[in-house]
Design brief:
Number of helices of chain A: 16
Largest sheet of chain B: 6 strands, mixed
Shape of chain B: globular
Strand content of chain B: 15-25%
Shape of chain A: globular
Order of helices and strands of chain B: EEEHHEEHHHHHEHEEHHEEHHHHHHE
Strand content of chain A: 15-25%
Oligomer: heterodimer
Radius of gyration of chain B: 23 Å
Structural class of chain B: alpha+beta
Number of strands of chain B: 11
Strand order of the largest sheet of chain A: 1-2-6-3-5-4
């Protein structure tokens, strides 16, 4: 029997949503096809709160959460977790920090216990902090040699100049050196708390059971000191094309990022721009960009476009890895494609192809527990409605070629671009 | 039929594995060929991987541009992988669209064009792919380790091939390789997902059974002789971070010792993730993490073996702590290796390794692409039964087995030790 396509997508009848009295929103959906469970979520403690001179503080704090709590040492925490083949990890973005955990369903109570312990009662042991600092600094030394990472970082620094989005969440060696244990303690006290926290539980557990486990673990958590998130400052727009070469000696290949601003997730242009982006540099073997840079010219193994659309202003960028002597040629080809993209409409065939692709690939992207958990968090974060994935085909299909062109023109001006590349 | 699994060999020798899974409206189809970088002689290194690229360049029926668009339009995902022992192509599609993938694979088994112009443009794409890898210190070190460990056996070179060969190989070299190895009797097809076996089987027969069987391609057989003494090497390059790799000789995946060694790997370096489409777990309470990272000799340590047809290597990779020297990290590693050789591990450690493997298996079964992957992958170095009985075989491992294999395989005289020496701006 064929499983029904539409009913396999999450919707209001199979997503359970409850807001706990302390402000935590819980989303749950069961999937008994495998005896495993995923727990993912986010909370209001992103890098936006980092002082410039201590950039990397939010990241250092999440990395330290599991290094020791009031109840357990670092080794005890991981021993419990790894002994049952479970995993739990924290991460940081600009606006939020988050976590991802998974385990066999039989070990879910343990996973919640460790999540709660790490979030609410970390003690940031001094010795562990220094071990962690050496690891973070090594990560930054490796980043400094990574042509892709550095091209992206330079791109953000130029595009978002004067805006918090210009700052890398993992900071710089000198700012990570500045961070003291007391900074982590204060950051945790002032920014960690249940307000604004969202948790998704997906897998071999009944939703009611999942929610009661969240209640037991985090329902009693109160944090009086939790500060409000600051407003984002306005963004200064580019007035001309800015190009920057970041030199990294001894490398065989350069990484190139060319782009400009993009829509926010909640902007009406988001869907038309996403469809346009797919045509520009994703569809098939990396869209029009892949066709010109890789297929026709043989200049790169990868050349694609991407959009970062979140709470604040986004970015719209084209990335490619090319031989150092071909940076100029590849840039020229990419800019020509951007010009074409804002001059003329996408064709009816291109539009139909991408729409079919967007709708058709949805079941695949929502196949695993992790995929579903990500989708539930996406719904909550951007207020999309529990029926979003059931309405998705409709939202995609109502976009016209004109909508795509208008969205492209609103954001992409081929005379005002950032061109960032890193390599020899 | 056992466990929803059907195994059939078609009249032309194409081996088939079909597994019904009705959890989502998705089907994943994989076609595996027994050809990889170990089937390449000098002068043509990288030819298997390049052939894989050319398989995306079109046939008369499915011209290049049409091919990828057709799959994407239907909401599918597809890709291919070339490894030392095999080359695999897969498509995961909404269940009602799988026919496109089947038709495409049947067609490109026989009819890929290898257009000279496409060969020329792909040459620079692949050189670019190699240059991207050369940006990574661990690629440079890994390549040096492999060519040192394998002087005779064709595991000697990287899958991507040597640049000299990538510059000089011809269209005919590629096409001959394709015609030699892409025959139904050298392939395994594995399909898993939301279908009915009977109709899937008859459709596959219809599409694939017309392909004539070819000569059974001979694989190079040049066993690596015994290594009689530790070899040390260093690779210099840009950066500020040192890495040390240690490679021990390991048996093939079908060897019975592979299972105790898997348990040993799990407790030394943390469980290796066997799945291609679902991640593993952390290793912060493994013996090596506790002895090396916790004690600040290194900032990270990872270990793992690969499931290969012929004996390959167990590789431990350490990112050296900025305040330490590579020799100090190596000495600390050696103390732990010595410990597993001298002292028996505990039963609890084995139980723990088995539970970890069970959890990682469960994560992998959330995903149909991963389940289809295993059907064919296991056939490349053993058979599907290897995968189905994997957890049971781990469960029979004893503490005595672990000590025996530690002494047998962790021999200093048959290892290669490599250091990446960062030039730190002095390049």
């Amino acid at each position: 029997m064929m499983a029904n396509q539409l009913n396999s997508l999450p919707g209001p009848d199979d997503i359970y949503r409850e807001i706990l009295p302390n402000g935590i929103t819980v989303l749950a959906r069961s999937n008994f096809n495998s005896p495993s469970v995923v727990v993912s979520g986010y909370f209001e403690a992103g890098a936006l709160f980092d002082p410039d001179e201590k950039l990397g503080l939010a990241e250092y704090t999440v990395a330290a959460l599991m290094r020791g709590t009031q109840k357990r040492t670092f080794d005890e925490i991981y021993n419990k977790l790894e002994s049952v083949g479970a995993s739990l990890g924290f991460n940081t973005g600009v606006h939020k920090s988050g976590f991802n955990g998974r385990s066999l369903a039989e070990d879910l109570p343990l996973l919640f216990d460790l999540l709660s312990d790490s979030l609410t009662a970390p003690i940031f042991p001094k010795a562990e902090m220094e071990k962690l600092r050496a690891q973070l600094l090594t990560g930054l030394a490796i980043r400094a040699e990574d042509t892709g990472d550095m091209a992206s970082m330079i791109f953000d620094q130029i595009l978002f100049k004067g805006h918090p989005y210009s700052r890398p969440e993992d900071g710089y060696p000198e700012t990570v050196q500045n961070i003291k244990r007391t900074d982590l303690v204060r950051f945790h006290r002032e920014h960690y708390g249940p307000r604004g926290m969202v948790i998704a539980v997906v897998g071999a557990v009944e939703p009611e059971n999942a929610v009661s486990q969240v209640k037991r673990a985090l329902g009693g958590w109160q944090a009086k000191g939790q500060k409000e998130t600051p407003e984002l400052p306005p963004l200064k727009m580019l007035k001309k094309t800015v190009s920057k070469h970041h030199r990294i000696k001894g490398k065989s290949q350069s990484d190139l990022v060319i782009g400009t601003n993009g829509p926010r997730r909640r902007d009406p242009e988001f869907m038309p721009a996403s469809i346009g982006n797919n045509i520009l540099g994703q569809f098939g073997m990396m869209g029009r960009i892949g066709d010109v840079v890789r297929e026709k010219s043989g200049l790169a193994y990868y050349a694609y476009s991407s959009m970062n659309a979140g709470i604040g202003p986004g970015s719209w960028e084209v990335s490619a890895g090319v031989s150092p002597q071909n940076v100029k040629r590849a840039s020229g080809l990419i800019i020509d494609e951007l010009k074409r993209f804002v001059q003329e409409s996408v064709t009816a065939d291109e539009l139909a192809d991408t729409k079919a692709n967007f709708v058709g690939r949805l079941p695949l992207s929502l196949e695993s527990n992790g995929g579903i958990a990500g989708a539930l968090l996406n719904i909550e974060r951007h207020n999309l409605g529990l029926d979003y994935y059931r309405r998705y085909a409709e939202l995609v299909n109502e976009v016209s070629a004109e909508d795509v062109l208008n969205a492209a023109r609103k954001f992409i001006d081929p005379d005002n671009l950032v061109i960032a590349f890193a390599g020899p | 039929m056992n466990n929803n699994l059907t195994q059939v060999t078609l009249s032309n020798g194409l081996q088939l594995l079909l597994k019904e899974i009705h959890t989502a409206p998705i089907i994943s189809s994989w076609l595996w060929y027994r050809v990889g970088s170990r089937d390449e002689v000098q002068g043509r290194t990288g030819v298997s991987h390049w052939v894989e690229h050319m398989q995306f360049k079109g046939t008369e029926l499915f011209p290049a541009n049409l091919l990828d668009k057709a799959i994407s339009r239907e909401g599918g995902t597809w890709n291919a992988f070339t490894y030392m022992d095999w080359t695999a192509y897969f498509e995961t599609m909404p269940a009602d669209k799988i026919d496109l993938a089947l038709r495409l694979e049947a067609d490109r088994m026989l009819n890929s064009r290898f257009d000279p112009e496409e060969v020329a443009s792909e040459r620079t794409v692949i050189i670019s792919e190699r240059e991207g890898s050369e940006n990574e210190p661990l690629f440079l070190l890994g390549e040096a380790m492999q060519q040192t460990a394998f002087r005779i056996h064709p595991y000697h070179h990287e899958v991507i091939g040597d640049k000299a060969d990538l510059r000089t190989m011809t269209r005919d070299d590629l096409y001959n390789h394709y015609r030699t190895f892409y025959v139904p009797n050298n392939a395994v097809m594995a399909v898993a997902g939301d279908f009915e076996t009977e109709s899937m089987l008859s459709r596959i027969k219809e599409l694939f059974e017309t392909a004539p069987a070819g000569n059974e391609p001979a694989r190079l057989s040049r066993p690596e002789p015994l290594q009689n003494g530790e070899v040390r090497l260093s690779v210099e390059g840009p950066g500020a971070t040192s890495y040390v790799q240690v490679c021990y000789r390991f048996p093939s995946a079908s060897h019975p010792d592979f299972f105790p060694l898997t348990v040993l790997d799990s407790l030394l370096a943390g469980p290796s993730n066997l799945n291609m489409f679902s991640g593993g777990i952390s290793n912060k309470t493994s013996r090596l993490y506790r002895a090396l990272v916790d004690k600040e000799y290194v900032v990270s340590v990872h270990g793992g073996a690969q499931a290969t047809v012929d004996p390959f290597m167990y590789t431990i990779t350490m990112t050296v702590h900025p305040r330490r020297k590579p020799e100090e990290a190596l000495a600390a590693l050696d103390r732990e290796i010595q410990r597993v050789k001298e002292e028996k591990v505990t039963k609890d450690e084995i139980t723990r390794a088995i539970k970890q493997a069970r959890a990682i298996f469960a994560y992998g079964s959330e995903n149909i692409t991963n389940q289809a992957f295993w059907l064919g992958y296991a056939e490349m170095f053993a058979n599907y039964n290897w995968f189905e009985t994997y957890l049971d075989k781990l469960a029979t491992v004893t503490t005595k087995d672990i000590q025996r294999v530690a002494n047998e395989y962790f021999k200093p005289q048959s290892r290669v030790v490599g250091t990446y020496v960062p030039l730190d701006g002095k390049a």
